[in-house]
Design brief:
It is a single chain. The chain is mainly beta and 293 residues long. The chain has 2 helices and 23 strands. The strands form 4 sheets. It has a 9-stranded mixed sheet. Strands 2, 4, 6, 12, 14, 15, 17 and 18 form an 8-stranded mixed sheet that branches. A 4-stranded antiparallel sheet has the order 8-9-10-11, with no helix packed on it.
């Protein structure tokens, strides 16, 4: 049986105070129906972006209560399928993103999705690679707006959180309270102009629980790599924490000392950037899966 959470069950911050939209047992399959990051407010390139209701930005569908999940456990989320709508939205916004200081006037672009490609203009068709921008659990501290990433997940804008990936999130509260939204039809690492190709859609996931298995930050498996993910106001600190998480993973799993483990990371590991435009920036560190076998 597949469970459904519809897009009328929205939250705007990750919090232990959010009331569950659905409760399931570990091992369940759930479909999250999502809005785009503007809560589907944009339907025309002629709309003034300044007229949007900015209280409705980055909505996430949920939360999902996973029975038996407790602080100190880990939630395992297998992303089985991402279906996207037939058009996406992009925007240029003065003061936002890396180029925000150079933008004098806002603009909106509507991108039709045709046969798996986003139509950017008459000559550029972008292959769609759907991914999840916001996915997280209730954090250990106070409520955190969906636009901000952290150890709980949130707005990581990680292009590898895509169909076929497995995401691991730490559990801080009973039930975990998982929510997700902010899909992209495609997004470049960094998301330098603030938006990817923002789009509504549906995400089908399988939820499992690793009891008494504690992690401090999100971990991801995608294709042939394992990623450790960290967010911080300082990009260098995000890079450092993501690398340290991988370092200690290698030490623990391969029984190496810190010198040998560090050299291995430097030989075959990669620092990668997820996004640099949120209140906290997000980095990931990748290692090939074969090294852990």
């Amino acid at each position: 049986m597949t469970n459904l959470i519809k897009s009328d069950r929205l939250i705007y911050s990750m919090s232990s105070e959010n009331k569950p939209a659905l409760e399931v047992e570990p091992g369940s399959t759930v479909v999250f129906e999502t809005c785009d990051c503007f809560q589907n407010q944009i339907s025309s390139s002629e709309q003034p972006i300044e007229k949007l209701d900015w209280k409705k930005i980055n909505p996430a569908t949920g939360p999902l209560y996973v029975k038996g999940a407790e602080k100190g456990d880990t939630l395992r989320i297998e992303i089985l399928k991402i279906d996207i709508n037939d058009y996406g939205v992009m925007a240029a916004i003065p003061g936002a993103g890396i180029f925000g200081g150079n933008i004098g006037e806002s603009s909106i672009k509507i991108l039709p999705i045709i046969e798996g490609k986003a139509i950017f203009n008459d000559s550029i068709y972008i292959p769609c690679k759907p991914m999840i921008g916001v996915i997280g659990v209730a954090p250990g501290e106070d409520a955190i707006p969906n636009g901000e990433p952290g150890s709980h997940g949130g707005n990581m804008d990680n292009s590898k959180i895509a169909e076929g990936a497995v995401l691991y999130l730490p559990v801080f509260h009973a039930g975990a309270l998982l929510a997700m939204g902010d899909l992209h039809a495609a997004m470049g690492d960094g998301e330098v102009m603030v938006t990817g190709i923002e789009i509504a859609g549906k995400v089908k996931v399988k939820i499992d629980l690793l009891k008494n298995h504690e992690i401090r930050n999100p971990i991801l498996e995608y294709e042939d790599k394992v990623y450790t993910i960290a967010s911080h106001e300082d990009l260098f600190q995000a890079v450092k924490t993501s690398a340290e998480d991988m370092l200690y993973r290698v030490i623990r799993k391969l029984h190496m000392d810190i010198n040998e483990a560090g050299m291995l990371l430097s030989a075959i590991g990669n620092t990668e950037i997820c996004q640099v435009v949120d209140p906290k920036m997000t980095a990931r560190f990748s290692m090939p899966k074969w090294v852990f076998k």
